């Protein structure tokens, strides 16, 4: 099964829907709003003058938001449609940015540049079958003492919905619509994998990255069905009356 071709087609189609959605609010971004959430702003901190690589950047809103804060940014994504839209947005917003269409695992061959920061966020890792290869990509892209900042959806909510938590070589293959409010109802085939947090951390350590912090958050900045209004302007999912972790972050330094 060519999961790359399947997922590229899915994200090419999703991009054409997403750029027109209020969920992403492209017009608001072009008027000066940031797409970055408080979690990543606080976790990453000041970026002015630093080189920042955004892996799996979709159509570049977060990448360009970092550029507005003074970072020298490079965004990479599998979807050629997403990269085309990202380049268009950069031009419309008058922001300097580089965007590269590439599979994550091939990125180091396409771009040998080294970065101060590698940024990965929200729903990125499930599209990758091998976290060791992902972590190697991150490590090779970082300068000595460069930082990886991962802000990712916590797998606990998927566990409550019946998903298997522990990693399996067999992917989940499904057909579904997209998550924005303007979903047309059209379904696309997608291939994803479940990754325990321990696999994420161990892959980074194995690649030569020292873990500096690991945090869990009892809320998400994004709403999904069943969530309720929670702290920090986000949304919570309650289990037996208690908030479950919905987001986690990992910060590491290249040795």
Automatic annotation (TrEMBL):
Superkingdom of the source species: Bacteria
InterPro entries annotated for this entry?
Methyltransf_25, SAM-dependent_MTases_sf
Gene Ontology biological-process entries: methylation
- Whether Transferase counts among this entry's keywords is yes
An example molecular function term from Gene Ontology annotations = methyltransferase activity
What region holds the Methyltransferase domain? Answer: 53-146
| Entries under Pfam families matching the protein | Methyltransf_25 (PF13649)
Task: Indicate yes or no for the key word Methyltransferase.
Answer: yes
Keywords for this protein: Methyltransferase, Transferase
Which PANTHER family does its entry note?
TRANS-ACONITATE 2-METHYLTRANSFERASE, TRANS-ACONITATE 2-METHYLTRANSFERASE-RELATED
Q: What is this protein called?
A: Methyltransferase domain-containing protein
């Amino acid at each position: 099964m060519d999961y790359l071709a399947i997922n590229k087609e899915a994200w090419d189609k999703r991009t054409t829907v997403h750029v027109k959605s209020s969920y992403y609010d492209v017009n608001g971004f072009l008027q000066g709003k940031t797409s970055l959430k408080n979690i990543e702003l606080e976790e990453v901190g000041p970026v002015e003058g630093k080189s920042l690589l955004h892996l799996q950047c979709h159509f570049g809103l977060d990448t360009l938001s970092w550029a507005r804060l003074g970072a020298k940014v490079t965004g990479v994504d599998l979807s050629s449609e997403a990269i085309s839209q990202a380049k268009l947005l950069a031009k419309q917003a008058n922001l300097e940015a580089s965007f590269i269409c590439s599979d994550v695992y091939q990125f180091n061959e396409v771009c040998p540049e080294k970065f101060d920061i590698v940024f990965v966020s929200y729903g990125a890792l499930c599209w990758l079958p091998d976290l060791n290869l992902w972590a190697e990509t991150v490590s090779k892209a970082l300068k000595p003492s460069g930082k990886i900042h991962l802000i990712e959806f916590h797998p606990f909510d998927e566990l409550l919905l019946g998903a298997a938590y522990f990693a399996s070589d067999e992917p989940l293959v499904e057909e579904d619509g997209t998550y924005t409010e303007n979903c047309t109802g059209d379904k696309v085939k997608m291939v994803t994998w479940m990754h325990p947090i321990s696999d994420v951390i161990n892959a980074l350590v194995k690649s030569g990255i020292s873990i500096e912090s690991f945090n869990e958050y009892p809320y998400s900045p994004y709403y999904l069905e069943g969530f309720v209004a929670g702290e920090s302007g986000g949304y919570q999912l309650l289990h037996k009356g208690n908030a479950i972790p919905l987001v986690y972050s990992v910060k590491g330094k290249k040795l």
